[in-house]
């Protein structure tokens, strides 16, 4: 079992990496160099924006599916560890796997259901709109939400480090996943500070001269049509480019690092469990 989990930890890095590299390669050719892609022509007419990155990297699309898969598998791994520790493990190990399970479940719910946006729309904005603007309310709420989420994951990490147990020691990839997830999560929560995501996206569009391509010109016409029908429409091409193509890519990197790191922890824990069992058999 430990060897199998280590192999799966490597697979968890390779598969998303190859998928992400392929996606970026196709986006570079189709969206930024104007290369034709016959199989994408039918998709262009379906709606949304006629850009490949929009259909690969936006909400509930292939790149996010991979994120959900990484988070879901990671949850199953640590939840299995928690179930095992409930029967045979020690209290410290039980706390680690419980906190990781709770954190991953909340992460998966947020990414797949947009829990923070649903709660903001249904509760926080209507409740506090007489005291602050919608932008301010959403920024404070999202910051608080990510603070609660990160507290679960950081608490698990603290127990892992403080235990001094080699089989619970976090790997470098797990620590890197924490950093990347934290940066992208709080960066998203604070996206309204100076509208930095929108500014970055517009800068990239200008630097790559993307607006000279017909697909981008058509996308801008569709944006103007959406803005004309709904003056409150806020999703500019610059914002979407950063929010979808860049942010979702970074989130996938964080998700695969997290899954791989958790599999490494599970591998060492499985090895420790086997050692305990062998010691018990030797004693008996």
Roughly how many Å apart are the termini? 24 Å
Helix content: over 70%
Number of strands: 0
Please state the CA-atom Rg, rounded to the nearest Å.
22 Å
Portion of residues in beta strands equals: under 5%
Q: What number is the mean pLDDT?
A: 92
Q: Which class do the helix and strand fractions yield?
A: mainly alpha
Q: Tell me which oligomeric state these chains represent.
A: single chain
What does this structure look like?
- It is built from 11 helices and no strands.
- It has 284 residues and is mainly alpha-helical.
- The chain has one domain (2-70, 112-271).
- The longest helix is centred in the last third of the chain and has 47 residues, at 237-283.
- It is globular, with a radius of gyration of 22 Å.
- The model has no long low-confidence stretch (mean pLDDT 92).
């Amino acid at each position: 079992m430990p060897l199998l989990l280590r192999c799966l930890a490597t697979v968890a890095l390779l598969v998303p990496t190859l998928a992400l590299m392929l996606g970026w390669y196709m986006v570079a050719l189709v969206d930024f160099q104007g290369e034709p892609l016959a199989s994408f022509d039918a998709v262009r007419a379906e709606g949304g924006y006629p850009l490949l990155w929009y259909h690969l990297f936006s909400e509930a699309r292939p790149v996010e599916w991979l994120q959900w898969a990484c988070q879901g598998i990671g949850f199953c791994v640590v939840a299995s560890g928690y179930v095992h520790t409930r029967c045979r493990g020690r209290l410290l190990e039980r706390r680690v796997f419980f906190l990781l399970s709770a954190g991953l479940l909340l992460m998966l719910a947020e990414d797949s259901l947009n829990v923070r946006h649903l709660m903001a729309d249904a509760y926080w904005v209507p409740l506090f709109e007489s005291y602050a603007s919608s932008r301010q309310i959403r920024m404070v709420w999202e910051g608080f939400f990510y603070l609660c989420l990160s507290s679960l994951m950081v608490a698990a990490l603290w127990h892992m480090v403080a235990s001094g147990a080699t089989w619970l020691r976090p790997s470098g990839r797990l620590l890197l996943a924490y950093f990347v997830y934290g940066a992208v999560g709080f960066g998203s929560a604070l996206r309204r500070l100076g509208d930095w995501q929108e500014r970055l996206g517009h800068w990239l569009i200008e630097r790559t001269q993307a607006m000279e391509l017909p697909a981008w010109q058509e996308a801008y016409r569709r944006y103007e049509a959406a803005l004309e029908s709904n003056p409150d429409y806020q999703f500019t091409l610059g914002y979407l480019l950063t929010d979808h193509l860049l942010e979702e890519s970074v989130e996938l990197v964080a998700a695969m690092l997290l899954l791989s790191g958790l599999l490494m922890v599970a591998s060492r824990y499985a090895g420790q469990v086997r050692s305990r069992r062998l010691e018990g058999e030797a004693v008996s």
